[in-house]
C-alpha cells in the first residue's frame, strides 16, 4: 500500500472504501470491517478511528454483500407484484449510486475536512467513477451478485494506476512524526497469484449470474432435469389449490460457484492442500454456523408470514400512512438491520411488507424494497453486531458506546437524506 501512496487519505480510499466494498462482496458478515480496520491501524490510524471509518465506508457496499445475498434473497420470498431481485437491483440504481458517491467524500472529510477533499479531489473522482458506473451496469443487466466485486476491483485498480502519476501536493499523515514503514516490493507474478482466488471467483460468479446460464435451468432449458420440485405438506396455493411448490437445485446456486472457485484455488496453490482447506472450512463453519442458522430461521419466519397472510395484514395497516409511507420506508429497513444485524435478514423480514404496501400507496414495489435495502445498509454503521465486530477487531472491547457515538450522526444523516430521496422518487415513479 505504501508503494501506492503514503498519504493516508489515499490509503483510506483504497482500504476503507474500495477494498472494504470488495470484501463485503466476497464475504460479508462483518469480515470487511474486521480486516480493513486492522489494515488501517497498521497504516497509522488510531484503533477506534479505524473502526469508525470502516463502518462508514461499509455503508456503500452493505446492500450487496456476500455475493449480493441481501438482494438475491428476494427471489425466494414470492413478493407481491412478482418483484424480483433483478427488479430491486435495477431500482437501487436510482438511489444507491448516490451513497457510493457520498461515502468516499465523507471518509476524506472525516479525517481532513474540506481541505482534504480539495487536495485529493482527482483521486476521489478516479475512485468513484469506475465504482458507480460498473455498479449501475451490473445492477441493470446482471443483478446483484457482482455489484460488490467487480466495481471495487476496478476502483482499486484505477486508484492504484492513477497514484503512479498523481500524489496530493501535501502528503497527509495523522501522526506527522511517526517512523516510516518499510516498503516491500512484489513482482507482477506474485501479485497476480495472490489475487488469483478472487479472479477465479469473479469469473465463475459472472458466469453463474448470466442470463444464459440461468436459462439452462428454466422449464425448457438443457439442465431443467436437475430441478427437484416438491410440495410443502399442509400448505395450499390460493390459486391452484395444490400444495405450495418449492424448486431445489444445487448447481445453479451462487454458492456452488464459490465452492468450485475454492477447489480450483486449492488445485493451483502450492501452500494449501485439500486437508488444510478442509480444516479451514471446518473453522469457518464453526464461526458462521450461528449466522447461517439465524438466516434459515428468519427466512422460515418470512415464508410463514407471507403464506399465512400476516404480511398482507401488516401491509394493510401500514398503508394507512398513505402517500407518506415512502418517506418512512427506509426507516423500516434501518430498524430491521439495527435489530438483526444483517441486511439479508432485514429484507427477508420486511421486503414482503414493503412490496405489499407499495400498490396500496400507489408506488413501485421494487422502489420500496430497494429503500428497505438502502436503509438497512445505512444502519450497518450503528448495528450492535457491526459495532461489536469492529471493537473486537481493533482490540477496543468495552468502548462500543464510544464507537456508536462516532457513527450515529453519519447513519442518521444519511437516513434522513434517504427518506427524502425515496419520497421524491415515489412521486416521480408513482
UniProtKB/TrEMBL annotation:
<protein>
    <recommendedName>
        <fullName>L-lactate permease</fullName>
    </recommendedName>
</protein>
<dbReference type="GO" id="GO:0015295">
    <property type="term" value="F:solute:proton symporter activity"/>
</dbReference>
<keyword id="KW-1003">Cell membrane</keyword>
<feature type="transmembrane region" description="Helical">
    <location>
        <begin position="187"/>
        <end position="208"/>
    </location>
</feature>
<feature type="transmembrane region" description="Helical">
    <location>
        <begin position="94"/>
        <end position="111"/>
    </location>
</feature>
<keyword id="KW-1133">Transmembrane helix</keyword>
<keyword id="KW-0813">Transport</keyword>
<dbReference type="GO" id="GO:0005886">
    <property type="term" value="C:plasma membrane"/>
</dbReference>
<feature type="transmembrane region" description="Helical">
    <location>
        <begin position="53"/>
        <end position="74"/>
    </location>
</feature>
<dbReference type="Pfam" id="PF02652">
    <property type="entry name" value="Lactate_perm"/>
</dbReference>
<feature type="transmembrane region" description="Helical">
    <location>
        <begin position="288"/>
        <end position="310"/>
    </location>
</feature>
<dbReference type="GO" id="GO:0015129">
    <property type="term" value="F:lactate transmembrane transporter activity"/>
</dbReference>
<feature type="transmembrane region" description="Helical">
    <location>
        <begin position="12"/>
        <end position="41"/>
    </location>
</feature>
<feature type="transmembrane region" description="Helical">
    <location>
        <begin position="123"/>
        <end position="143"/>
    </location>
</feature>
<comment type="similarity">
    <text>Belongs to the lactate permease family.</text>
</comment>
<comment type="function">
    <text>Uptake of L-lactate across the membrane. Can also transport D-lactate and glycolate.</text>
</comment>
<feature type="transmembrane region" description="Helical">
    <location>
        <begin position="250"/>
        <end position="268"/>
    </location>
</feature>
<keyword id="KW-0812">Transmembrane</keyword>
<feature type="transmembrane region" description="Helical">
    <location>
        <begin position="322"/>
        <end position="343"/>
    </location>
</feature>
<feature type="transmembrane region" description="Helical">
    <location>
        <begin position="408"/>
        <end position="429"/>
    </location>
</feature>
<keyword id="KW-0472">Membrane</keyword>
<dbReference type="InterPro" id="IPR003804">
    <property type="entry name" value="Lactate_perm"/>
</dbReference>
Amino acid at each position: 500500500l505504501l508503494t501506492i501512496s503514503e498519504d493516508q487519505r489515499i490509503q483510506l480510499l483504497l482500504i476503507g472504501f474500495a477494498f472494504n466494498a470488495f470484501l463485503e462482496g466476497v464475504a460479508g458478515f462483518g469480515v470487511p470491517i474486521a480486516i480493513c480496520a486492522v489494515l488501517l491501524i497498521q497504516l497509522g490510524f488510531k484503533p477506534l478511528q479505524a473502526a469508525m471509518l470502516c463502518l462508514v465506508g461499509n455503508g456503500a457496499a452493505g446492500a450487496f454483500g456476500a455475493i449480493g445475498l441481501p438482494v438475491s434473497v428476494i427471489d425466494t420470498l414470492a413478493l407481491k407484484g412478482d418483484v424480483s431481485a433483478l427488479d430491486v437491483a435495477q431500482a437501487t440504481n436510482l438511489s444507491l449510486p448516490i451513497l457510493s458517491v457520498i461515502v468516499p467524500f465523507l471518509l476524506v472529510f472525516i479525517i481532513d475536512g474540506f481541505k482534504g477533499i480539495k487536495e485529493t479531489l482527482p483521486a476521489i473522482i478516479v475512485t468513484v467513477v469506475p465504482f458507480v458506473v460498473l455498479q449501475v451496469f451490473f445492477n441493470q443487466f446482471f443483478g446483484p451478485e457482482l455489484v460488490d466485486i467487480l466495481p471495487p476491483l476496478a476502483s482499486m485498480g484505477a486508484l492504484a494506476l492513477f497514484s503512479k502519476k498523481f500524489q496530493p501536493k501535501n502528503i497527509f499523515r495523522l501522526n506527522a512524526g511517526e517512523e516510516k514503514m518499510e516498503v516491500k516490493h512484489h513482482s507482477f507474478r506474485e501479485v497476480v497469484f495472490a489475487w488469483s482466488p478472487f479472479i477465479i471467483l469473479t469469473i465463475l460468479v459472472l458466469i453463474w449470474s448470466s442470463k444464459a446460464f440461468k436459462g439452462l435451468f428454466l422449464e425448457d432449458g438443457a439442465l431443467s432435469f436437475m430441478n427437484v420440485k416438491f410440495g410443502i405438506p399442509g400448505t395450499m396455493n390460493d390459486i391452484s389449490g395444490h400444495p405450495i411448490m418449492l424448486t431445489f437445485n444445487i448447481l445453479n446456486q451462487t454458492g456452488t460457484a464459490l465452492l468450485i472457485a475454492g477447489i480450483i484455488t486449492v488445485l493451483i496453490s502450492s501452500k494449501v492442500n485439500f486437508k488444510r482447506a478442509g480444516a479451514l472450512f471446518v473453522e469457518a463453519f464453526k464461526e458462521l454456523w450461528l449466522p447461517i442458522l439465524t438466516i434459515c430461521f428468519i427466512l422460515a419466519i418470512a415464508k410463514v408470514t407471507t403464506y399465512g397472510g400476516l404480511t398482507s395484514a401488516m401491509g394493510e395497516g401500514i398503508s394507512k400512512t398513505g402517500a407518506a409511507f415512502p418517506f418512512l420506508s427506509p426507516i423500516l429497513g434501518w430498524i430491521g438491520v439495527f435489530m438483526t444485524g444483517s441486511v439479508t435478514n432485514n429484507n427477508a423480514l420486511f421486503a414482503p411488507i414493503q412490496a405489499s404496501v407499495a400498490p396500496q400507496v400507489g408506488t413501485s414495489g421494487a422502489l420500496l424494497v430497494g429503500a428497505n435495502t438502502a436503509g438497512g445498509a445505512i444502519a450497518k454503521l450503528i448495528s450492535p453486531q457491526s459495532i461489536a465486530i469492529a471493537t473486537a477487531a481493533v482490540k477496543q472491547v468495552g468502548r462500543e458506546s464510544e464507537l456508536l457515538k462516532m457513527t450515529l450522526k453519519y447513519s442518521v444523516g444519511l437516513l434522513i437524506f434517504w427518506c427524502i430521496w425515496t419520497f421524491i422518487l415515489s412521486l416521480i415513479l408513482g
